[in-house]
Amino acid sequence: MTDYNKILQQEIQDLKDQVSKSAMPPEMNHKVSKDIVSLERSVELGSYDEKYEKVSKYIEWVLKIPWQKTTKDRLDIKKTKEIFDKHHYGMDDVKDRFLEYVSVLNLRSKQAADGEFKAPILLLVGLVGTGKTTFAFSLAEALERKIVRIPFGGMGSSKELRGNSRLILGSEPGRVIRGVAESGVRNPVILLDEIDRVAKEANSDIMGVLIELLDPAQNNQFVDNFIDYPIDLSQAIFIATCNNTRGIATAVLDRMEKISMPSYTDDEKIMIGKKYIMPQLLEEAGLLEGQFVILDEVWPKMVRPLGFDAGIRTLQRNLKGAVRKAARIMVERGYKEVIIAPENVKIFLPQY
Length: 352
Description:
The chain has helices spanning 3-21, 26-45, 49-64, 77-87, 92-111, 132-143, 159-162, 175-183, 203-214, 250-253, 266-285, 299-303, 313-333, 345-348; strands at residues 122-125, 147-151, 189-193, 222-223, 230-231, 237-242, 257-260, 292-294, 338-340. The protein is α/β, with parallel strands linked by helices and 352 residues long. The chain has three domains: 3-64; 77-260, P-loop containing nucleotide triphosphate hydrolases (Rossmann fold, 3-Layer(aba) Sandwich); 266-348, Helicase, Ruva Protein, domain 3 (Orthogonal Bundle), CATH 1.10.8.60. It is globular, with a radius of gyration of 25 Å.
């Protein structure tokens, strides 16, 4: 026996050991064990190269799936409110809806005899920059759940969600199972981000997968093409976002509860800029609070240099650029502080 064969046999034995310790279902264990036996025969016959790569990669992915592991929810309304207030200014109606959501989870978890419950599915609808994605992350933080973000922008095939057959060399599970595996638990918050922005030619197929994911009667048996075995996603919490609902199938909308995200007023944006955005930007740039100052009369220009913007993306970009320019001025010219006033504001705003 060559040294290479010995190495392969040791690797196969390692896979066997990991499978024996795994909490995968018995049927999946049987399926994987058959693959290992077939792999051992291939090694003995010397025809193992491509098959070994396919089978070992498949088993490694199966072992990554959190078949049983979960996190325990923190269903503390007071803590939830603190977290949403920490990350979001205003938006009281939206925050109230999330507090109601956590309250329902609290009651339903107590009533469920087996500790399991089906969480309502929320769809956050609003213009760019209104905080849709951030609300999903805040919910995950409040519940102490892992979060999996699946971006739908430009998605061109349902296979990106469901994966390709493992018979195809180089294939992997789709984004859903890949994300769950990376989270390490079977009950993460799964953020379906911008579901209205998929490629038109793939819209109907992707909507078909979404129907399955969002249907409590189906998502406990979700089949990824690569894994080729039903995986229970019923304990995950799904939250979706979109700019508008025009391109979303009616059957998908029927499975979700819509929450409209309001636009921010200029006064709200100024408060968000001062309280939430600036402290983080200053820390990232290595500046102290008093070293970079924007005078009150300048803030409206930072918020609305060209006109109305429903979200805070423009404000974030403007503040980032201003902080970068201030940092350069301080380093190159030796200034101890930079103050943005009406007479110099144009230096710190983008030149459109």
